Write the structure tokens for this entry.
Amino acid sequence: MTVLPIFFRENELFSVRFFFLETMVHGRTHYIQFNFDTYTQQYIDSNQGYGHITS
């Protein structure tokens, strides 16, 4: 399995989005995103989707 992590930080939210490169079709791929609160350093939630690899 090849996974590409992309990190986001916006205000008090830190997110890590893992793109699964094996499922890539026409520049779009499946991803899972985990969100954390930067103030409390706790896990908030996660979501998944299908889209372009963006930062």
Observations:
- The mean pLDDT is 92.
- The first strand starts at residue 3 and ends at 10.
